[in-house]
Amino acid sequence: MQPSDVRKMSADEIGKAEGELRERVARLTMKRNARRLDKPSELVAARRDLARVLTVKNEKKGTK
What we know:
0% strand; elongated
């Protein structure tokens, strides 16, 4: 997910994406703890995507 893609989203879409990404990070973390995560890079990518979404969300909140 690119930052430019996130910036084009509405506030509702950003909130939905945030929820989905938080869920994905939680699932991948549980898999990692159970030693069942095949690609550790998936967790890293999910965390980065979540950080991008939260950054854009805070940027939009600050401009109001």
